[in-house]
Amino acid sequence: MKADNLEELISRSIKIRNKYHELEIQHHGSKWSLEEDALAYLTDAGLVGRNIMAQQQRWPKAGAEVELEHKLGENIWWLIILAERSGINIEEAIGEFLKDREKLLDL
Questions:
Q1: Range of the domain at 91
Q2: Which of 17, 18, 59, 94 has the highest Cβ tally under 10 A?
Q3: Is residue 1 one of the residues assigned to a domain?
Q4: pLDDT tens across 46-100, in order?
Q5: C-alpha to C-alpha distance for 74 and 80, rounded to whole angstroms
């Protein structure tokens, strides 16, 4: 399912994370901290690297193509969540980053 815009992706991401927080409270008595979210993101980022290696036949792993697609989406989701929990507007952060790179590279 393709999203129409970044604002929609952010809204959907936050709803999903809030539901996971409910499950964390139910199963563990508290929701994950921002630090735990960051560690989960880093784990998934590492899996992106491993799946890229497998896709390029540099690491033996079956099903890497499907998992790579999933993990890329999950990593973007985590970045949205980390930004939101850190009080950072991810739309503005991306916009500023792109503007800086474009200026640097004369685009």
A1: 6-104
A2: 17
A3: no
A4: 999 999 999 999 999 988 889 999 999 999 999 999 999 999 999 999 999 999 9
A5: 10
Report the CATH number at residue 49. 1.10.287
Contacts of 58 (CB under 8 A, 6+ apart): none
The pLDDT value recorded for residue 8 is 95
78 secondary structure, DSSP code? H
Is residue 61 included in any domain, yes or no? yes
Q: Count the residues in the chain.
A: 107
Place of tokens 């994370």: 17
Domains identified in the chain, total number = 1
Cα gap 59→52, rounded to integer Å: 9
